[in-house]
What we know:
Blueprint: H1 2-11, E1 40-46, E2 58-63, H2 79-88, E3 98-103, H3 131-141, E4 146-151, H4 169-187, E5 193-194, H5 204-216, E6 223-229, H6 234-240, H7 242-245, E7 250-254, H8 262-266, E8 270-277, H9 283-298, E9 304-308, E10 327-330, E11 335-337, H10 340-349, E12 357-358, E13 370-375, E14 381-386, E15 408-414, E16 423-430, E17 439-448, E18 453-458, E19 462-467, E20 490-492, E21 508-511, E22 514-518, E23 528-532, E24 548-552, E25 560-568, E26 575-582, E27 593-600, E28 604-610, E29 616-621, E30 629-637, E31 640-645, E32 648-655, E33 663-668, E34 674-681
Parallel strand pairs: 1-15, 2-3, 2-9, 3-4, 4-5, 5-6, 6-7, 7-8, 8-9
Antiparallel strand pairs: 10-11, 12-13, 13-14, 14-19, 15-18, 16-17, 16-19, 20-34, 21-24, 22-23, 23-34, 24-33, 25-30, 25-34, 26-27, 26-33, 27-28, 28-29, 30-31, 31-32
Amino acid sequence: LSAARRGAERMGCAALLWGWLWLGCSWGPGSSGVAAAALSTAAYVLDDAGGLGRQFDGIGAISGGGATSRLLVNYEEPYRSQILDYLFKPNFGASLHILKVEIGGDGQSTDGTEPSHMHYENDENYFRGYEWWLMKEAKKRNPRIKLIGLPWTFPAWIGKGENWPYDYPDVTAYYIVSWILGAKQYHDLDIDYIGIWNERAFNSKYIKLLRYTLDKHGLQQVRIIASDRLWEPISFVLLLDSELHGMVDVIGAHYPGTKTVPNALLTKKKLWSSEDYSTFNDEVGAGCWARILNQNYVNGNMTSTIAWNLVASYYEELPFGRCGLMTAQEPWSGHYKVEAPIWITAHTTQFTQPGWSYLQVDGHLEGGGSFVALTDGLGNLTIIIETMTHNHSQCIRPPLPHFSVTPQRATFYLKGSFCMVETLQVWHSRLGFESGNSSLFQQLYPVKVWKGSFSLDLNVDEIYTLTTLKTGQKCGCPEPPPPQPFPSNYKDDFNIRNPPFSEAPNFADQTGVFEYFVNASDPGDHVFTLRQVVVQRPITWASDADQTISLIGNFRWVNMTVTCDIYIENQRDGGVFIAGRVDNGGIYVRQTKGVFFWVFADGTYRVTGDLAGEEILMKGLSGVRDNAWHTLTLNIQGTSASGLLNGYPLWENVTISKPSNGWAAIGTRSFEFAQFDNFHVE
């Protein structure tokens, strides 16, 4: 069997091994060199006669929190559709049941900012950003997928000057419900669940007002999740406040370490791990994901687990690079990578659906690892087994207490309505840490159930799915193009009359929002520009900078020339910059260093070594004024930098010690309107 199995793995996903396995045969890959007699053995009963466990609510992933899908939208076809198929298409790849998106609030939310549908109080636009598009693409592939919206940040007007969204709860509720109504009106999207404020305090008065506002607008079907933080204090408050208890449908905790708390169980609410994983998507990340997908239910009664993040489509050197289920960070080349967590997901998602129920089992394997069993109540049964070892399944958080897993034989007895099951389809993954050669989501021999039972020999770091369903598939697209670095000569004149998205390709906003703009009053070459549009500091989630900034390019760039036409709109105190060797972004944007060439509306210029403008390398007069176009050029070669204004040298021979490499960038002195055109980096 093992030789046939190895041959099948070499042949890839098309290979299918047929045969019957009988109780008494040692079945399963086993441990090479481990005699069957040496295996620990244990028996497990799967029975629905005494009732079922909790209802399963699905496996999902998050786009946002923030800007994690930024580069995905720029992929050309067919590659973009292939990536979306791997994520959402049923019985193809990850086959996700849930898509959770950020309700953009113009603030930094981990790897960038996402634009709000209402930058200002009198402003509504339901076509900004890419989450609307992504939800539609998910629904196109799986009409049954559940949609969740959650804010990380809010535009400034919500707080009326305060960095807090709850002082005017009616305003915040109106803002969130507008997003739900806009999803339906402009995109025919029905939002299923809505959250409160990601990983920040909840407010009982606001939650009640949100429920009231939803109901007033005919949105009774939209369920509320609270509080996307920890199990407490929300669980305790729900037990004290019966009115609030009736309005919250799901308690969502983040990174729970597969554990829950007594108060959460006492509420009798659905318990979800509403954000989890967040781990580099190599084999250890896949081991983390396999372990928590089972053990969140086995240890913590959680009926849904949602990964941050859906797809790593942001510059890898930003915080938490490659912490997605797959990687798609090169739209310029078309290259993407279907990482191991995609196929770990498939072990559950392709053989279950929201609405199925867990069986009442302990779920812990005697030799370490876990199993869950689910049924649709119509005779179908799916069993998912994982034997992840400690060092091969550590998630980024929380710390993982030590445990041991050993090779073992597990015998399962099928009772109740499952006593008539004769055959189970088998799907298998083995994460190859020592060999570096993993076998992912391979279909093996069906297993013959003999007199109501079957046995499996389980090695460590394996995942099995045994199921009555015959619909599983490991589909593969043709290999994507090979990886390529960001183009070393890149131009964008922003001359696009009807852009498919509100933001220019490859620019990654880190504070502020940079959008395509039609400058109707300009008679010349600057009708179509890129404009920074956030004019007040948003209600923040992270430490947004005091300046706005958008990154682009290759983090490894050393020598570069950046040129851009700029237009300061703020009189007197306005200012803009172009920059190179920019070394930071995301939640660390305030610490950003680089070479920054600033010009200001008062006719001065500065060269600084940081975004904050505190490390001044050179300053002087430029003659630049507001409401006029000027061309800035920044040239960095080795340890020296120089700058041109409108093609003429303005400063030169500024010594640069560090950083030694980084992105190019554009931005503004403060939260202010400013325009950019004819960007060029070489």
